[in-house]
Amino acid sequence: MAEANLEPERSERLRTTLGRLSVAWQDLREGIAMRELWIFLGWRDVRKHYRRSVIGPFWLTLSMGIMVGSLGFLYSQIFGTDISTYLPFLAVGFILWGYISGTITAACNVFSGAAASIRQIRLPFSVYIYQFVWSQLINLSHNFLIYFIVLVLFSIPIGWSVFLFLPAMALYILNGVFFVMILGPLCARFRDIPMIVGSIVQVIFFMTPILWSAEQIPDRVAFVALNPFYHFIEIARDPLLGGTGTLTNWLACVGMTIVLGVIATLFFARFRSRIAYWA
Amino acid sequence: MTSIELTHVTVDIPIFDAGSRSLKNNVMAAATGGQIKPRDGTRKVSIRAIDDLTLDLQHGTKIGLIGHNGAGKSTILRTIAGIYEPNEGRVDVDGSVAAMFDIGFGMDPDSTGWENIILRGMLIGFSRKEIEARAADIGEWSGLGEFLDMPLRTYSSGMSTRLAFAVSTSITPDILLIDEGIGAGDAAFIDKAKARLEEFIGNAGLLVMASHSDDLLRQWCTEGLWMEHGKVRFHGPIDETLDRYSASRTA
């Protein structure tokens, strides 16, 4: 008797999952169709933050520039390395980390922060996701000013490999979206996860070769290689500094993107309809 | 054809106090066997805002939702708008929907009146081009003149209501959902607003309106739906529904 019931129950559950996946997929597609709205809102988010300040979002650039300049000077002394190789390395690492950490920590507030609007109008939830990732990209591009200054100042030899930065960026964007698809609903439901995420991100910063480089600990290869963030920093940092990143770096990043993508899609499909209740 | 069909719709709204929202309490509850009042075998506390509601509204219907606070009126509107997806049952809505719940929604105090027209216009579904083409009309109708160049935070509350009202009523949806009365500033403005509101509501193929004002309901609605604890108490012509409702209150 119990066995006879098992089959229809399982197929019923499968149908529900497939139904949810198609609704989630539709949500993501509808969001892309509404790009005019989220591009507009994303710009506003960035501008709103710096309204009535004279240099606007370049405050972000300026503070990061000061940080990179002084830390670059200090740590090149501590590590005894040449500042002309260390500072560009640090600068690019910092800029990229700014995007990664900013995206992960703020991803937590995407839905809880938009609670008022979620309860007032029906928009695809992906609109909030794209709006957020877009505003993070705008911030990142402001910080690129530092890169160009460093590029000229230390005459970094970049070649065609710099275009590898574009696929790297595509992976950054995809993973940014995936992170919000998971952390957005999760943090709306459990309000102390943002704090947990915040402290984890801080620890990861010190464990990832940003201030220090992987070559400095040749006998601790696994420690670096097992850190997903190392690979993500590397695929974008190396092309910007004249290299390509290793094949391992690239394969690791593509692999992680696929895994995260599958998890994010399933998670988002499962809990999408609850976001309005949780936010 | 414009229509709204609710089939056996049930909506449970989970209640999160500071406690049940935190991860710690959930972990602790799991460890201690869960002391928070259970519902349907889970630890979650929730309120059944709509209980097995079946409703079929066709083009031309102007229905008023009546009932005490917490009877489920706003939840019905939000469910029809597609904001809340029901726990059980189906919601089929055919036609473009405009929801007017909070008139001040989507306004930015630091932006000018003009910018707010664009912002709110895009949020309610206009493309940038469409709203820019209408902005001049909307601005003129609001009667705010050169205040439109000033940030919204310098406006009185009546002035920002005017602006919000002007933008919100510039769309022509198939289905219009209104929650509570639309408060609209000073007396001179109310007369002006009335004409526009008449046109706005008149153009909609289907109106669902929640209100505590008998006058508003009698003016705009032909049907009434009296809700109590998430269930339909009575569904019929607006006058009869209102009479029965007020009789129950005085009794």
Automatic annotation (TrEMBL), chain A:
It is a multi-pass membrane protein. Keywords: Cell membrane, Membrane, Polysaccharide transport, Sugar transport, Transmembrane, Transmembrane helix, Transport. Residues 38-238 form the ABC-2 type transporter transmembrane domain. GO terms for cellular component: plasma membrane. Its main location: membrane. The keyword Transport applies. This is ABC transporter permease. The lineage of its organism: Bacteria, Pseudomonadati, Pseudomonadota, Alphaproteobacteria, Hyphomicrobiales.
TrEMBL record, chain B:
One of its GO terms (cellular component) is membrane. Coiled coil: none annotated. One of its GO terms (molecular function) is ATP hydrolysis activity. It comes from Fulvimarina endophytica. Keywords: ATP-binding, Nucleotide-binding, Transport. The keyword Chaperone does not apply. This is ABC transporter ATP-binding protein. The keyword Transport applies. InterPro entries: AAA+_ATPase, ABC_transporter-like_ATP-bd, ABC_transporter-like_CS, ABC_transpr_TagH-like, Bact_Polysacc_Export_ATP-bd, P-loop_NTPase. Pfam families: ABC_tran. Residues 23-251 form the ABC transporter domain.
